[in-house]
Design brief:
Blueprint: H1 21-35, E1 38-39, H2 49-59, H3 77-89, E2 93-97, H4 100-115, E3 119-122, H5 127-131, H6 135-139, E4 143-146, H7 156-161, E5 168-172, H8 185-197, E6 201-206, H9 213-216, H10 220-224, E7 229-233, E8 244-248, H11 250-262, H12 271-283, H13 288-308, E9 315-317, E10 325-330, H14 334-348, E11 350-351, E12 358-359, E13 365-370, H15 380-391
Parallel strand pairs: 1-11, 3-4, 3-5, 5-6, 6-7
Antiparallel strand pairs: 2-8, 7-8, 9-10, 10-13, 12-13
Length: about 400
């Protein structure tokens, strides 16, 4: 599972025989999502261009004056978005970036210059290590130092006992590839304190920080206030077109803007992306706590449904989701459960699992479930009924 949205370019039917079984299954899954009358987890980016633009234009007048001149190289609406983010996170300033990959490289290379140490302590499952093709070392001259590869957040003891020095600690909140897991508030503050004891700065990979307030029981500015700098995404939780922001001290942000230009991030006009981000902050951000609470209802119903279906081994991880996203693990090869999920959508127009399935060992498959606005319509009974229908399409494991 990667953060790159799957492209559905409508392959030529004459090329069907040239596509792999995986590609054909992917195309069927995408088609089933579009046609399903009910989908538990459906990302906003899956809509058509017309749907996305129509939706944006319906909401845009509520968040920004559309008669104002469009932005040029980040002035006007982009500057307004930066100010809004800094206010939400309680930082002195913020800078808009076209991607989170660029934002984090810039932040950490700036910190490396200030600390004199290019080593970045991070989790082995963190986004730069898994999804960015070694960009830290290949592009920015940074040296990743893995704290742990356990599917959980790093501990304060691990930070204190790390065998080599580091200039910055990067914490991904939540840690997506471990199951969107978060530490407790006490654990987080202890980890930050441990890094400070080692004279290291702390950077939050907060691509999904927006959805963490319910778990921590703290407002965004208090969470962000633990770190020296924070990156946030505008599309992962907020359904924007893309883009990210780096927030922190004004001096750091001004330096980061210089590096943004050097990295090619000074794009001529970005008003559609910035406008979609403002809409997300206005419309989706206030609903995220509700999504998190309902994700816990959905997760419990999934567990109950698998137990009632007599599936010998099934896991929802974490058992009580920390955010509105979590994993489901089943004892089958990924292509088997993927086929069952697609068939359910094709045959019933109800799609329980709309995301891809990955293999995580022999006979073990995992997928991600995200509860957004459409998921709120699903009651626990709806989920259990969909599980029964889904498991009926799986091979007998007896």
């Amino acid at each position: 599972m990667t953060d790159t949205a799957e492209q559905d370019n409508g392959p030529d039917r004459h090329q069907d025989d040239e596509r792999s079984p995986q590609e054909r299954l992917r195309d069927r899954r995408m088609a089933a999502q579009r046609q399903a009358r009910r989908t538990l987890s459906r990302a906003g980016w899956g809509g058509t261009l017309r749907e996305r633009l129509t939706d944006l234009m319906a909401a845009a007048p509520e968040v920004y004056d559309l008669d104002e001149q469009s932005d040029i190289y980040g002035n006007r609406i982009v500057a307004a978005l930066e100010e809004r983010v800094a206010g939400l996170l309680g930082t002195e300033a913020a800078a808009f970036f076209p991607t989170g990959t660029m934002a984090q490289q810039v932040a950490l290379r700036c910190w490396a210059a200030r600390t004199g140490d290019p080593a970045v302590a991070l989790h082995a499952l963190s986004h730069p290590e898994v999804h960015e093709r070694h960009a830290f070392s290949q592009v920015s001259g940074l040296r990743p130092v893995r704290v742990t590869d356990e599917p959980r957040q790093p501990t304060a003891a691990e930070i204190r006992d790390l065998a080599e020095p580091f200039g910055a600690l990067m914490l991904e909140l939540p840690l997506r590839d471990a199951g969107f897991v978060l530490p407790t508030w006490e654990e987080l503050t202890e980890v930050v304190e441990a890094a400070r004891e080692r004279d290291a700065v702390v950077h939050f990979d907060g691509a999904r920080l927006w959805e963490c307030t319910e778990h921590f029981g703290r407002p965004l500015e208090e969470i962000a206030g633990l770190a020296d700098s924070v990156y946030v995404s505008f599309y992962k939780s907020l359904a924007g077109f893309g883009g990210a922001a780096l927030a922190g001290p004004r001096s750091l942000i001004e330096e980061a803007k210089t590096w943004r230009h050097r990295y090619g991030g000074m794009i001529f006009q970005q008003f559609p992306t910035a406008l979609s981000a403002l809409v997300g902050l206005e419309r989706e951000l206030p609903r995220l706590p509700e999504y998190v609470r309902h994700a816990r209802v959905v997760a419990a119903a999934l567990r109950e449904g698998f137990a009632e279906a007599g599936l010998p081994w099934a896991r929802v991880h974490p058992g009580v989701p920390h955010t509105h996203e979590f994993q489901v693990w089943l004892p089958y090869e990924p292509e088997v459960v993927a086929e069952a999920a697609v068939r359910q959508g094709e045959e019933t127009s109800v799609m329980l699992f709309a995301n891809p399935w990955d293999g995580r060992g022999p006979g073990l498959a995992v997928t991600e479930v995200t509860v957004r606005a459409r998921g709120l319509e699903w009651t626990a009974d709806d989920v259990r009924a969909a599980v029964r229908d889904f498991t009926d399409r799986l091979p007998d494991k007896a």
